Amino acid sequence: MARLQEAMAAAEARAGAQGWRWQGVRQLVVYGLGCIEDSRVSRYQLFDPAFSATDAALIAALGCQVIATNEGGARVAEEQTLFYLPHCEAALCDSLLAANWRAGRLPHLAVLGNSFDLYRERWAAAGAKPGGARPGRLLRLVEAGAVAELPVPDCGFHVTSAFNDSSLHLLLADACGDALGPCD
Q1: How far apart are CA 30 and CA 43, in angstroms?
Q2: How far apart are CA 90 and CA 82, in angstroms?
Q3: What does the angle CA 7 – CA 138 – CA 68 come to, to the nearest 5 degrees?
Q4: Separation of alpha carbons 101 and 107, rounded Å
């Protein structure tokens, strides 16, 4: 618990005076878990197009609301929202950023998911055509230093494929301003 509290305090400090505050979180949105009914890995991680009716019933029984339609990651964060994207590709993260690409909205997001910096490294190493659409907004924010990325240790979790490359990402208010401009 002490390590978690230290990491949370470090995240707040990196976000700056106008940035992220854990007590301000109003929503938790989860994408990319896979089918809980069919996948052992998914059981450890809540919208995914792969959810079965059984999965949705289980999630509802746990007191959570299942997102009824595939948003494609394009959810607007009107208030501080933690997005948990454990197995999502860069394109889904980029859709989330695109939906919130307005002055003052990006700092409402915190993303717990695959490392943005590793996405950047993979795109740089693969050249112009690593496959799929270029996640322009994600790459632009990382390259501009507008993302505070805090790697999440695996803590010896026994299913190694479940949480590899995980990091907490906070979008820094000062760096997400007008200097970034529009991204088409």
Answers
A1: 13
A2: 17
A3: 85
A4: 10
Strands (E), 4-118: 27-30, 81-85, 109-114
- How is residue 8 written in tokens? 């949370």
According to DSSP, residue 23 is labeled G
Where are the strands (E) in 31-138, listed by range?
81-85, 109-114
The CA angle 6-7-12, to the nearest 5 degrees, is 100
Q: Are residues 108 and 125 in the same domain?
A: yes
Looking at the structure, tell me whether residues 84 and 11 fall in a common domain: yes
pLDDT in tens, the chain (184 residues): 455 566 666 666 766 555 666 677 777 787 776 776 777 666 555 566 777 888 888 878 877 777 778 888 899 998 889 999 887 888 999 999 999 998 778 888 899 999 999 999 988 887 655 567 889 899 999 998 888 898 887 666 555 555 568 899 988 876 666 445 654 4
Claim to verify: residue 38 and residue 109 sit in the same structural domain: no
Secondary structure, 3-state, 121-134: HHHHHHCCCCCCCC
